[in-house]
């Protein structure tokens, strides 16, 4: 019975509302390993997919999960199975900087004189 409790069923919700999984993971699985699994299972037809583990953020119960934590440590005490984690893809900072420098800067300040 202890072996069953050491496994967690996790579903990954993508930003477009589609899912990867559910799939069972041991409670000792690291968040970094979950991200690698997401990369391997990422739908090929989706645009702007992550290229590396660093591009992926996992959110569970409103918290961004740290790579060095285990699934068991991140588990919500309220519910056991299945767990849904939200997946956010962040482009590398160099792409963000390129995007910001290529767009003309606009002053968005508004002054109101009374």
From TrEMBL:
Keyword terms of this UniProt record: Cell membrane, Lipoprotein, Membrane, Methylation, Palmitate, Prenylation
InterPro entries, per database record: MUB, Ubiquitin-like_dom, Ubiquitin-like_domsf, UBL3-like, UBL3-like_ubiquitin_dom
Domain Ubiquitin-like: 8-74
Subcellular localization: Cell membrane
One Pfam family this sequence matches: Rad60-SLD_2
Gene Ontology cellular component terms for the protein in this record: plasma membrane
Bilayer topology: Lipid-anchor
CDD domains: Ubl_MUBs_plant
Record has Acyltransferase as a keyword: no
Role description: May serve as docking site to facilitate the association of other proteins to the plasma membrane.
Identification of the protein by name: Membrane-anchored ubiquitin-fold protein
Organism of this sequence: Rosa chinensis
